[in-house]
Design a protein that fits this description.
Helix content of chain A: 25-40%
Strand content of chain A: 5-15%
Largest interface: A-B, 113 and 113 residues
Oligomer: homodimer
Mean pLDDT of chain A: 86
Number of helices of chain A: 13
Low-confidence stretches of chain A: 1-14, 18-51
Chain lengths: ~400, ~400
Amino acid sequence: MDSSTPASAQPPRAVVRPASGMVAASNGSAPVIVTTDIGTPRPLSTRSVSPKPPRASIRDVARESGVSLTTVSLVLNKNDSRISAATRQRVLDAMERLAYTPSRLARGLPNRRAKTLAVLVPALQHAFADVYFGEIISGIYEAAAERDFHIVLEVARREYVRRKEYMTLLDDCSVDGILFIGATEEHRWLSEFDGSTKPMVVVNNHFRQWKLHSVVCDYPSAGRMAADTLIEMGHKRIGHISGPSDMVLTSQELTDSFLERLGDHGVRLDQRHIVDGQFLVETGRLACDELLKRDPRLSAVFCANDKMALGAYQSVRAAGLVPGKDVSIMGCDDIPTAALSDPPLTTIRMNFFEVGAAACRRMLEMIEDPARAADFTMQRIPVAMAIRGSCAAPVVRPAKK
Amino acid sequence: MDSSTPASAQPPRAVVRPASGMVAASNGSAPVIVTTDIGTPRPLSTRSVSPKPPRASIRDVARESGVSLTTVSLVLNKNDSRISAATRQRVLDAMERLAYTPSRLARGLPNRRAKTLAVLVPALQHAFADVYFGEIISGIYEAAAERDFHIVLEVARREYVRRKEYMTLLDDCSVDGILFIGATEEHRWLSEFDGSTKPMVVVNNHFRQWKLHSVVCDYPSAGRMAADTLIEMGHKRIGHISGPSDMVLTSQELTDSFLERLGDHGVRLDQRHIVDGQFLVETGRLACDELLKRDPRLSAVFCANDKMALGAYQSVRAAGLVPGKDVSIMGCDDIPTAALSDPPLTTIRMNFFEVGAAACRRMLEMIEDPARAADFTMQRIPVAMAIRGSCAAPVVRPAKK
DNA sequence: TCCCGTCAGTAAAACATTTTACCGCAAACC
DNA sequence: GGTTTGCGGTAAAATGTTTTACTGACGGGA
């Protein structure tokens, strides 16, 4: 969960050839852009070039339908009870005729509500391109759209946090609440929301030290399911590639419950069998290298997310072994790639879409009834095992060399 | 690019086991949610529960610093020229003391500018979880943030389009411009923007029949590079899995330039060697099945995107062949998974991040100088070959059976 | 001395809504 | 017959800015 990727964590470098006569994308940095303007310059249109064309306002509707501003406003807000059906219809007709659309900006002003939520993500490389974030955002979007709320995107870069722009966002009236994805212990500024009834929901992580609203996957169950599954298959020599458990509580929950359940079954892992893989493909690969070095006869590895599991595939292959046969590999998350890898990855399915949607619904509740914001809750979303080809009964293999 | 996925296109079904004593995620539909409220109810805080706490307004700053509203506004907007240094400082100090933040809502009202752009995506399954969209959105975000613009997300569902909400969005004043990702020929409503100077930019596609602003990858170059690379390696029996070229012009460009260049090299593909793979993993797999059926001695397949190439891997393996050895596979896009597949996928690297950023910069230009919106341009972003293990010189293999 | 221009700043209108408090009228109640 | 009540509606204040057009003071040139 760190924005800087260690040099060792680069994907295997491909040979990159520039198109002939064209500047190539230089490694990592932004490529030089060759602009080809093929647009046909058109004559300027005759209509005014003023910022916006004149639009019908509520005032126009009032005049057109012969009622007062208030009446139009009431009809608009379905606060109709004391408006007669006839009048209402007149107003609606006028709106129709004038193609009237209320201004979101102006509507928000008087009661300071923007009908907009901010989705805040940490400043990772191209954060929005990550399935994990993407899936959550899709869920948030869906739940927000149902109530006619908009979603704005925000990235919490260092500057952003230093200047407390997340607060500005709220004071701004440009946003009614903040949903924070990818929160870690590193984000100390969350303490500002500790016990406060400000509209903030932490998505898929939570904190012991602060009272904050949160919605998370059921990681304790996930850990137990992983342990049960591997034990049932007959594994005894098990390795674990954890997430950064000191930074992410949900990651800690997963690891703890996994180890505890293994212990219940009489299998005790010591520190030699556990390596932190930082949730990334490349560090996952390195972690697995390390595990296999420490115990070359490992029969199964449980990875705290699918990306690291994909790294583990590479590591196992590099050791001359076959993933899913010589070494069973289990992931967590069920990202789309999981089912496509070879062999298909056994993993724990997490419904991130639902996590996002639930978090958003919680947020909307708080906004509608601020009193409820005072009791802080954590909601758990259930998970399920997805068993595929990458896990099987252990095969005994001779110690190498 | 269709929102409904054919039943045949489901990923290989995994065995899904519910956690004991817990409701499982039912296939496809939203899982039943088990809510675990572990929040400690806290006493309501004593502070008022009114919608928002009172904030300092520009008026307060004016009073505090003993100047007029106008002066404060001028300082705020760095329209300082006619304000003396001393006064400016007094105002800035007052702002500091009162922790003043201007209201975005109120600022937008007078000149009808929200300093916000909308990113519109078609109603695909969890669109935001797609790397392709995500990468573009990241680019847009970055370019927008530089100029202090916000990004709001919008999904163009059928209802949305029918009610012309994209127009509402603009009239609304809630948004200053629209960036449309994932546009296809299906989106007929784009004709409303044909030749209009309304702030709309189409991202990574363009149209022959309409004058619209657009920024796209250099697909013609990409097609030629693909052809050159395969020919150089010695391939003659080449198959092509295209995108939906009737719906997406960039896809057509890629296919056309690929075929043309192959022709230049004396290799002519007829319709038997080309199958539409709809840009999806599963349909890509099926398309490759079909190609191999039609010509079992195919030595290379060029896929119009990486997802279909991953499907092709499955298909080739299912035929008992080894991808990258028996059949060379080339993709297009260079999504993160490409480098992780086995063998790593040879593909054409497209800088979607930059496409998004460039599109956004174009948008901002138009907003700042509406006159420029009148000449419609298309901008091309260069691409590069990324050669990895999935392509090699052809090996002759006996006709099967 | 008068006129003009510049400097430094201000008053007030405009933007498009919501919301609060009120009003006139008729029917119902005692 | 006077008071209440409810209905259908309205006037006006409030929300927080930007922008246009103005003002007063002061210095310089004729």
